[in-house]
């Protein structure tokens, strides 16, 4: 019977599993619901259902694996025991989403990944296997360059216009139209309620890009500033892991980078440092988890027939 290797990307919105045989040929993939939290019986049930469904689709019902890697956006500490109860795995790694995103983006090679979705973080690994991070401190104390922070800056700009001490900006009317609020003050108060969770607020970052592309200078300045933050994170990680004259692949992933304005500025700033080379991800995070599973078993493989996983 062929040995199977498993990679799982467990996030806030969905779970993706990828299975390959010992040659690195991808044999299946599956999807499930969100699984980043396990506190409380209801959350544990959702976790087990999401992981179980995704892995069952990917493996055809197999529950035994030569090696497996699970990466989670909510952190790995409280999830390993549940995984060990669900599956038989000879070698198991439960880790963060940043590691598997990096491994997928570079195909397992050394480099740096900048992740900017709802929040933000930069993470890297060098040829010696040493890792480092910058950012990722959450929406209260950090997450500069993430979607939530971009929207926060847009709301601040709308409030300044509303109170008469800031420049006029298209962001004011665009955000009011999207939320249905009567004015910026009401909108701001709505954003403190459970009806507007962080991912929903972060999703409004796309309107900052729309306004910037329409020529709004306030929106353009926000995107340029957030791009600077993200480039700074990548630079901080590079400084911890790579020599000044060394080459470093710097990849990016996350919905914020759908903004061509922000991405262009970010790449320009990153590549001002000699040796940095920006690139789009080679694979998605689930494939990165699969690469880490092979790495755990002491094997380096090139994946064949990888699934079309959104990057």
Write a structural description:
The protein has helices spanning 41-59, 80-86, 97-106, 138-141, 147-163, 170-179, 184-190, 198-203, 205-213, 217-241, 260-270, 285-296, and strands at residues 4-10, 15-21, 26-32, 64-72, 88-96, 111-116, 120-125, 131-135, 248-253, 276-279. The strands form 2 sheets. The chain has a 5-stranded mixed beta sheet with strand order 3-2-1-4-5. The chain has 311 residues and is α/β, with parallel strands linked by helices. 44% of the residues lie in helices and 21% in strands. The chain is built from 12 helices and 10 strands. The longest helix has 25 residues, at 217-241. The mean pLDDT is 90. Strand 1 (4-10) and strand 2 form a beta hairpin. Helix 5 (147-163) crosses helix 6 (170-179), helix 5 packs antiparallel against helix 7 (184-190) and helix 10 runs parallel beside helix 11 (260-270). It folds into 2 domains: 4-107 and 282-296, Nucleotidyltransferase, domain 5, CATH 3.30.420.40; 109-281, ATPase, nucleotide binding domain (Nucleotidyltransferase, domain 5), CATH 3.30.420.
